[in-house]
Sequence to fold (520 residues):
Amino acid sequence: MAKEPFYLTTPIYYVNGEPHIGTAYTTIAADTVARWQRMDGRDVMFLTGLDEHGQKVAQAAAEHGMTPQEWCDSQVPQFTDLWREFNISNDDFIRTTQPRHVQGVQKFMQMLYDAGYLYKGGYKGYYCTPCETQWTLSELNEDKTCPTCGRPVDFIEEENWFFKLSEFGDKLLAYYDEHPNFIRPAIREHEIRSFIKSGMHDLSVSRTTFDWGVPLPFDSDHVTYVWVDALINYITALGWGSDDASKYERYWPANFHFVGKDIIRFHCVIWPAMLMAAGMPIPEHVFAHGFLMAADGSKMSKSKGNALYPRELIDRYGVDAYRYYFMRDVTFGADGNISHERITQVYNADLANSYGNLFSRVSNMTVKYCDGVVPAVPDSMKDADNPLKDIADGLYEKYRACINDIDFGGALSAVMELVHRANLYIEESAPWNLAKSEETRDQLVFVLYNTLEACRIAALFLAPVMPTTSAELFSRLGLGDPTAIDDVKHASAWGVLPAGNQVTKGDALFPRLATEKKQG
Ligand code: MSP
Fold:
């Protein structure tokens, strides 16, 4: 059967910022969804990439004595290397300096121009270069700083091309009414609705005071405003506007744009208005996550010394535990306070003491009591009570409903329910006592098979979040890579683990960590 397409994206990150725990968070969340959808039989297109134009990039290049392109090229590996380390399974990586993108942006701008949505006018207003955002005086903080980042803004007065954004207020509100799940979570939709109701201005979409950008095809003294340029990446990556638009036909409109809450106006107002003007379909959902904050709820910053860095966390906890922690403990959509203390607590409780410990117990017992081979379930036990099967049978539906709703915590807690029940099942059935007599051999074998099967099913559902550990656990059960599965529904059915497979013990999957003391 032909697979149904599924397209999701992360923002394209500014090339001259370092990847940080915020950008890693979005990228890991999108990767989790992409991996799950592939396992669930979808034909996935997962896109991430880099935003390489704009004044900020041009300035940074000049400071480093490089051309803007050389500067961009030198910055790319810090992203691609980290994403590789995190096992990010993106299908494409777009850079806005690529010809396919530049061509697409020019075609798009020409379409807006031809359709009469662009006009030339005088721009007078404020501009935050770090955020590449235009502001009116009334939107600025009282001390006239940027309302997003708190940094000083520039006053700009120049001739620009404008997009008639103000014509789209009512159309956007009507669109949100008809598509109640377009903006998620609901709190962001309220925010966007009140922004629109407060009055929309036309948007300046070009600049003339620097040239590091995509020249407007109908007025080459102007380069395209970097945000407008950047948003179009979601279609140029599909070949729209360059040679081959077949991917566009297949994957557009996107199922999900994942973004941070600070960039929703661009994704929920400007982008859909641009698409409406161009007569193109609008993505199904924009999902905005919250901000990762320091342990005390304050903003993380280098200067305050309270920032946590992806590499530091990877070294301490490992990639899979890193991914697990952020997906398990930080609600996607809300802000989250991040501390070593809490990460250590979740790591020890869920991964070391529950999941890792379960596998270590059952693999040890299989080696000890069954010569390291998955035992066959004896006929005498075929109709016996099986609390693990009862939980596992409902897991696919439960997990799937959660992930489709972007509730990672819910999906993972459904898996942990099986893990916890399996540990309890071992306690209750005490295989070490059953092993004392030949008369209870069938029961012993039954308990071991059930617990091995629970491990397999847990590893299967944990694979989108912890691909390396799941592959390792699968190989210790004599099975192939779970991340290559594309029919998780059938693969997760009870009893798929074949009797006769060799079981290997191996090192602890998650060695226990020393407890982190509360600071201060
Ligand atoms: N280039 C634009 C996006 C263009 S998309 C068409 C951009 N780039 S960025 O490098 O600044 O990326 C910012 C992303 O990181 C945003 O989604 C933002 O919300 C996210 N975060 C920045 N700091 C963050 C935290 N402390 N916590 C979580 N996410 C945060 O914006």
In short: The longest strand covers residues 118-128.
